[in-house]
Every structure is written in C-alpha cells, then in structure tokens.
Amino acid sequence: AMIALAPVFGVVLPSLDALTVNAAAERGLSAASVSAAAALVEQHGVALIRGAAEPALVEECRAVVERNFAACRDALDRKGVTMDDGFAHAEIVHRAKRRYDMQLGEAAQEPLPPSVLDGAPWVPVMRKLMGDDAINLFTGAVVAEPGAADQPLHMDGGHLWQGTHGFEQPQCPPHCCNVFLPLVDVTAENGPTEFWPGSHVIGKARDAYDGGEPGVALAGAVGDIIVFDYRVVHRGMANAATAARPVLYSTFSRPWFRDALNFPDDALFGAKGGGGSGGFGGGGGKAKKKPAKKKR
C-alpha cells in the first residue's frame, strides 16, 4: 500500500501514520474521515487517504489519460518533435526530463467527462478546507516515464501577499489545494512524491530547502489519494522502473483565486476553445499565458 522511503539528511522521518487516514473500509468518505483529512492538511500540509477511490473511477481516469497521452505523442511526432525535446502546448507541457503535465479539461483532445469526477471522494475534503464555494481550477495528469529524474524541491504556489509582506505576516488558511490520484500502484522504484510536512507554514519552507527538515516519500496504491496544500514543499521522485507512472491531479481553490501560470495558449491540435485551465470535466477559465515554473 504505502511506503516511507529512507530518511533524508540523516534525520528520523515523521511517522507516516501521522499523515494517514484509513478509509479502505468505507464506501465513500465518512464525515469523520473528511474532517480528519482536512485537519491533517491544515496541520502538516498533506494527508494520505487510503482506499478512498473506487476501482471504477481509477480505471476510467486511467483510460482517458492513456488515450490523451497517446494522441499527444502522435501529434508531436507528426510535427517532428520527440518526447525528449522541450515543448509546451495548451494540451501538454514537458515539465522536466521525461515528466509530462497534460490537461484533461476543454483543451484536451478527449476531455474527462464531468460525470467521472462529480462524486469524487476528495471533493468533500476540498470543501471542508476551503468552503462549500470552492471551485475546481483544472484537472490533468502527470506522466513520469522511465528515466524521469528527481525533481527539485518546489511549491506549486507561494503564500498570498508574499511579494509585499514577505514572511512578516500571519499564516493564512489554505486558499488552493491539490489532490493526487495514482492511476497505477506507485512504488519506491517508479517514483513516489516526497513531501516536507509542515513546510506550508510561512517561513518553514526555508528549512526544507536548506536541508534542515526531513521529507516523507508517499507511494500510493491504486485507490489511495493524497491531498495537499499548494504551499507545501514537495518533489516527484525518479522513475527507475520500466513502465510509466501516471497520476491524475485536480486543483481546487477558493472562488476568488486563479493560478495564472500553468499552460500556454499554443494548441497542439489547433484551435479548440483556448488553452485555458480546463479541469473537472472540462470547466472553463481564462487561457494561461505561459508555462508554469512549478513541476509536479
């Protein structure tokens, strides 16, 4: 199921159990599990929820991701672009070596139907964290192919008002959160995601970047989900296996927030309603202006 990798920087890792909610025996998430997961995200910046997703949901998402990735690969090949080249399109961006970020919203060749995710188990957690009016910004998939290397440490987004107030401000509640849904069993070999618990707290990210805090590598089985604060420090780890490691992600926020850096406008398949945020079965949003610096 879940694996904690070796300690980082020679420091004993935080207990994996401290980050985990076990929902394997539930049909959907109970109110208690929703509250427990939200509390973990608020305290540690990340929560692992075991057995939260039904096999049928995972299988349908995996099939759509595989078809879209194959279509993107074929379209790039027709343009004379290899998967090792640097490229950035409205549908797919090469974020780092052998690591690809692909939209599943309206910019996708085959958008993920809204019905697939309307009852997704993470939606109540997002609403618990950010209110009943939380919105889905976009949904996509990260595909790490064999040979993908460890990513640099990063946050998907910074603290609000950091440009003007720096670290001299109180800790704000979550304004944007992600969920990961592994589409295959993730192992130590094919590339888990390493998180630095507590690094979402203002000023604490510096400890992670400086090597002063340990990380915890989470490797999820099919059916597990990981919910995390946009501000928590994390990185995707290397895929040393022989098969790709696809993970679906869905990004939620408070209704007034937008992620302005994600995908460019340039369409791989030609005009299709813009290269916007997509997500949650093809929801809209303004087109992004340039690729994000963040890498999942």
Amino- and carboxy-terminal Cα gap: 21 Å
Number of helices, where a helix is a run of at least 4 consecutive DSSP H or I residues? 6
Uncertain ranges: 1-13, 273-293
Report the major sheet.
8 strands, mixed
The value of Rg in angstroms is: 18 Å
Strand order of the largest sheet: 1-2-9-6-11-5-4-3
Tell the overall outline: globular
The mean pLDDT is 86
Helix proportion of residues, in percent?
A: 10-25%
User: Strand content of the residues, in percent?
Assistant: 15-25%
**Can you count the beta strands?**
11
Structural class: alpha+beta
Characterization of this structure:
The protein is an alpha+beta fold and 296 residues long. The protein has six helices and eleven strands. It has helices at residues 31-44, 55-78, 114-117, 123-130, 162-165, 205-209, and strands spanning 20-22, 46-50, 92-96, 99-103, 135-144, 176-182, 193-195, 216-218, 225-229, 234-236, 245-253. It has an eight-stranded mixed beta sheet with strand order 1-2-9-6-11-5-4-3. It has a three-stranded antiparallel beta sheet with strand order 8-7-10, with no helix packed on it. β3 and β4 (99-103) form a beta hairpin. The longest helix has 24 residues, at 55-78. It is globular, with a radius of gyration of 18 Å. Residues 1-13 and 273-293 have low confidence and may be disordered.
